[in-house]
Amino acid sequence: MVAVGSIKAVFFDLDDTLAITSGYDKIAWKAVGELAIERHEQVSAAQLIEDFRVLFGTKPWDTSHKINVTKWRAGLWLEALQKQGITDEPLSEALQAKYDEVRYGLFDFVEGVEAMVSELEGRGLEVAIITNGHHKVQRDKLEACNAYRIFHHIIVGGEEVFGGRMEKPDPAIFLKACKYVGCKPSEAVHVGDSLGSDIGGAINAGLAASIWINPQGTPAPEGKPQPTYVAKLVTETPAIISKIEASV
């Protein structure tokens, strides 16, 4: 990627990197479907969730920030219910509350993350989280997994956007992390699951290397940003850092 000096810092994505967010989502959706059927037995839970996901994919929150994100997402559940002929605003609010209750109640780091961070810091490396997403939602996730106990440097992309700046893959957010930890871009590695946001962002910022978290082990598609290294689990990071340092 770039001429590599000694590695001084490792940056981590949060969702589906440090925590398996998609897995918690599936459990929360199941609980939401069960609640919907309990209130209206004619509901197709599978269709409800699919319709919600489509709506969520196009407008996950109010970009003007005039409507609270929880209320906004309750509105998406209401739209999804209405596609099945059901207009029940109290239920839509209950569905979002159930989703948050289940997801945040389960949300935690992948097993071994705390030991991994301790090992990296023991080797003299700085660590940080760089996560995209709505500022309140991401902060709630970070609180749920007690991230502040382990990570002293955390940058939330949604807060950057709220302040008129850019989130991943814009290089500025990575350069901000470098400033926080006191290293040059060529002395930092970024770890994440998104080829576009994480790997592309690391390349854009001129970082020393990128590690793509890819549990399926499938190759990165042609035309997408190409990672320097691939791992199935984030906890493989210390071993990969050792490889990088050995190659310098």
TrEMBL record:
Gene3D superfamilies: HAD superfamily/HAD-like, Haloacid dehalogenase hydrolase-like domain
Keyword Nucleus set for record: no
Protein name: N-acylneuraminate-9-phosphatase
Swiss-Prot/TrEMBL keywords: Hydrolase, Magnesium
Top-level taxonomic group: Eukaryota
One example of a Gene Ontology biological process annotation: N-acetylneuraminate biosynthetic process
Single Gene Ontology MF annotation: N-acylneuraminate-9-phosphatase activity
Presence of keyword Amino-acid biosynthesis: no
Cofactor(s) recorded in Swiss-Prot or TrEMBL: Mg(2+)
Pfam families: Hydrolase (PF00702)
